Amino acid sequence: MIRMEHVRKSFSGNPVLRDVSLEVHDGESVVLIGRSGSGKSVTLRNILGLIQPDEGQVWVDDNEVTAMSPAEIMPLRKTIGMLFQNAALWDSMNVFDNVALALRHHKMMTEPEIVNRVYECLELVGLGEKSVAKRAPSDLSGGMRKRVGLARAIAVQPKYMLYDEPTTGLDPIMAGIIDTLIRDLNTRLHTTSLTITHDMNSAFTIADRIIMLHRGKIIYSGDVEDTKVLKDTPIGELKSEEEMVVHQLLNGDAEGLIKPGPTDHYEKAHAHQ
Amino acid sequence: MDMQPSPADNSYNQFVSNIGRKVLDFIDRVGKLSFLVWQVIKTLRWIYRDRKLYFRQAMEIGVMSLPLVLLIGAFTGAVSTWQTNYTAGDLLPLKYLGMATFKAVIIELGPVLSGLVLAGRVGSSLSAELATMRISEQVDALEVLAVDPIRYLVSPRMIAAIIMVPVLVTLAVFTAMWGGFLVANLFMGVGFDLYFGEIPVFFKMKDVYVMLAKSATFGGIIALTGTYVGMNAKGGAEGVGKATIRSFVYSALGILVMDYFLVVILF
Questions:
Q1: Span B125-142, mean pLDDT?
Q2: Residue B150: count of CB within 10 angstroms of its CB
Q3: Nearest CA in chain B to A164
């Protein structure tokens, strides 16, 4: 289980996360939604121990990430896979070596086993042809790069998968393929996953539960069916400001409590908290 | 009655505060650089297991820089011989021309000029590569897969530079002597024996040690600066550009400052 408790994080005095607590249970697929700059990526980086929160605790299973040294975090990271927004493939290596790097570095397998594992992972993401494995990342389309990033992440057989805006920059068909792939992999590999996105179609395809982060705080958590109901609820029937904010984001409405700019209606009303 | 600070007081306070901030910033950077060196030292126990990474960087830093360094060496020797003849030609017999060029090149010009050129060729390339990796989350991707970026990216580059720069400088000194001889022979009519004859007489092993010590230090400065600046780059394509410039400026400055201290220490 991934657990964050009362996490706060500021950059140069600007609060990004303000008292964030969340749990992702084993086997669950949680999608974290929110506007750009709401603190979604910072949440993922805190879980991975890439940054330390100013306050609060982050737990992965029984390990308190926030209390671990960089050397202690390394073994824990072998249990977490991550798909980066732009795939973050290593340009100096071909596709095969990108997927094989962690396996080779950690001496997890013999070379023939690594070859089998790499092709197995590439096959899982629909890139099993040998010609693809020899190609440089720069020769791949955005969708293929994401799929190679996914193959690289699952190669080490992680217990947890973190996805950072997996469908950003992809055409709707490729976005649909990636969503389906993530959903299938979560089921087939029994991974626990946390995905951040502002693509609502993607969120509804991938998620068991949807959480909304707004202005550094979690203002909503509900399962997919409840969230779909909330999305389709007429504005006049919404019961709270939080619901109105979630409704606005889910529907992508330009009008509502969320306004562009550093402060919005909702922010002003909750500035004292 | 409250005393309001005068504009002069304000500007003085601001001046002192700026100086203080710069000093703290400098101490912070020295601390971070020292910590990076310590992290590199800790990864050296993996040097045999990671030997392929080290060889690849040795090729990249050493072999790929060879044509440039040899060219620089040849022209440095040629200019050095010409200038020595122009400056001291009336006082210095021609038989000492080769020896004077050799001393100038091996102790000073070879390591420093090669170092400055390599700060541009190698240092900028290291910082641009690592800055791009940092900004495009490739360094984060290594960390997420539990691959230590210091061990995987920084240590091979730093050790390769420390080993390969002395090799490059040694070869540059050889080509400098041939460049100098060519000029002496073509324009001054100095033969092979006359040009090279006095070098063994005045040759000291210490000169070689100084050249190696200087060039290894300069190699370390180039790699340390390039990797540090690259790994700490921020802010998109502009960040990569700034990292490249910073790397060259800091390396060049570091080489010239360390050259002074090494001369004071070694002579």
A1: 95
A2: 18
A3: B137
Q: Which backbone phi and psi does A69 adopt, to 5 degrees? A: -75, 165
ipTM: 0.86
Burial bucket for residue A53 (CB in 10 Å: 0-12, 13-18, 19+) = buried
* Each residue's pLDDT tens digit, B88-101: 878 888 889 999 99
Q: What is the DSSP letter of B82?
A: H
Interior CA angle at A217 toward A214 and A219, to 5°?
Answer: 70
Instruction: Report the DSSP beta bridge partners of residue A161.
Output: A81, A193
DSSP at A13: T
| pLDDT reading at A215 higher than 90 | no
In angstroms, rounded to a whole number, what is the distance separating the alpha carbons of residues B81 and B69? 18
Whether B145 and A50 lie within 8 Å, measured CB to CB? no
Superfamily (CATH H level) for A1-70+191-266 = P-loop containing nucleotide triphosphate hydrolases (3.40.50.300)
For CA atoms A130, A134, A137, A138, give the dihedral sign: negative
pLDDT digits (tens, 9 = 90+) for A132-187: 999 999 999 988 999 999 999 999 999 999 999 998 888 888 888 889 988 988 88
**pTM of the predicted protein model:** 0.86
Nearest residue in chain B measured CA to CA from A93: B138
| Neighboring chain B residues of A102 at a CB cutoff of 8 Å | 145-147
